[in-house]
Queue: 4 jobs
Job 1
Amino acid sequence: MDFGDILDAWDRQTARALGNKRKRAAQQDPPSPKPPDQKRQKNQQKPHPLTAWLQAHEVYDKDAILDAVSERPWERRRRLLHTRADAVIDLHGLNRDEAWKALDLFFLNSKRQGFEKLLIVHGKGNHSGSASVLKQLVQTFIKTCPFAGESGHGHAAAGGTGVTWVLLKNQKNP
């Protein structure tokens, strides 16, 4: 008897054993399913007496409801600081008046569309005579805009002092 004969015998024996198991499983009655009511009763536990009383008297945890509906201001701030801007405006090549009008329109449209974070590209003022004209204009605009909230400069890789990000105020929390 060589190795091939041994493998063939092994395969036949394994196939017979599997066939017998399948036959036995088919001959046995399948387990009767439990009625749906019994399943529900097992899975449901009695509520805590205090919870049952609160539900019966329609008393709800108002703080939990508020937490589920709205985020706290510091959570919103933290989230927005780590997200990308919803809209970007580039003021390069504009004079003061054009830049002011563009910013005014940009902020109005952004607020109307429900944006939360804006990015203003104004440049570093390297080509200005004394100081960055657009950078100062942007800071003045942000101070006077009623829905402009916290602002700051971008990271060095994102433009550094040549860009300013602005978080728009919530309508609920102006």
Note: The first helix runs from residue 3 to 27.
Job 2
Amino acid sequence: MREYTKIFKALSDEGRLRILNLLVRKPLCVCEITEILQLATSTVSKHLSILREAGFIIDKKDGKWVNYYLNDAADEQVRVLIETLIGWLNRNQTALNDIAKLATIDRNHICGVKHS
């Protein structure tokens, strides 16, 4: 039961749902997620930690970036949950606004100073 509780806890926050909605579309770094969601970096980092612990995401270092990805190796039930969530979020205006912002951000512009 503990594993299921961890999974549903991870899905019980609007910020974490919004992050999953973004990561379905492409890998992102903390700066990009922070910019889109307009949350504090520490808040985004905490959300990412909870999502990683629940098995939804992984992170990979790529040069000066740490990119966050959906976990392709997540168990089948987690993948089904993500698909269901994305279906719901595709009808949510906040989630749609996040996707629109995603198309306009440039990590080199918003993160360049922080990662140089």
Note: The chain has a mean pLDDT of 90.
Job 3
Amino acid sequence: MAKTDRLSEYVNEQPILWHDRRRYFGLPISFTRYSFDKDKFYLKKGLLNTSSDEILLYRVLDVRLLRSFWQKIFGVGTIVLKTADQTTPLLEIKSVKDSERVRTALSNIVENERNEKRVLGKEMFGAAGHHDVDLDGDGVADHIDTDLY
């Protein structure tokens, strides 16, 4: 008689809808990998020392696309997710291919997840609280007051 694995019933793997790596000069030569399914966004970094993070998509508050001149030349862009997640309040999905399509898909999936879970945006703002994040890259944490949004 085969022994059943009780953990298997809790592992609910969804098909991955999109995946890419951070790109340098348009080439996927990085060890930073991004992907998402219909419920979660996944971030994996590293080769020898690795870290993995996942964000529930219904907790995303805002989706923003940034494309510099050089990113436009190489056909990539950076998507910024502002979330109500405690560990990752601001996630930059840096230099990914087809960034406009990915941003649109993420935005639509976030709305679908919120509607499915019956979560309103104003409920998420309270969950986000106040965060200190280095938004401009100057090494000094900038205070985000989510009550103002």
Note: The two ends are 58 Å apart (CA to CA).
Job 4
Amino acid sequence: MNKYNPQIHHRHSIRLKGYDYTQQGIYFITICTHKRAHLFGEVVDGKMVLNPFGRVVATYWQRIPRHFPHVQLGTWVVMPNHIHGLIIITDDSGGEAPPQVPMPAEIDGDAQIPGQSDTIEGCLAPTMPHGAPPGSVGAIVGNVKSTVTRRINQMRHTPGAVVWQRNYWESIVHTPEAYARVENYIRLNPARWQADNLHPNAPPNPYNQED
């Protein structure tokens, strides 16, 4: 993907009540499963191996720019009980073309669903997606959560079952240094899986990680 461009992505904003999450910027998002259940696969030798449910998550995450044309995807990874990802809200009035984002190196296998057509710097805080403004970070997260939930419950024949936690974690990435740190944190998440699970209820925080 294209690296952080301060002329395009930089915004001098902090996480405040009433902040406009439809505006241009880079957002580090983490969505966890209900009760932190290991639903999406397992980490083997430091690499994430997705099961069919995990491939559903990966597929719908990759489809975000289709439903939200003003959004580009940065680095992301699906883990056994959560997904980390960078969402970049850009101007849709022109400018550079959206970057081509490959599958993360930590993920093995095809992210497509078999049998389906292809139809921060700052404090992390739990955020509720319900009633989010159209095109906002909350609306994007809500779309992913609802579509993934519907598809997984179809696959396992559990209509109405809860897949995700009600909230999600987010932080605004303000600087190139913060962007690099978050990107590194996401890429190394599978390798750090065992250590991270020593504190399973702690929120994700790349700013406290060593490079």
Note: The chain has one domain: 20-193.
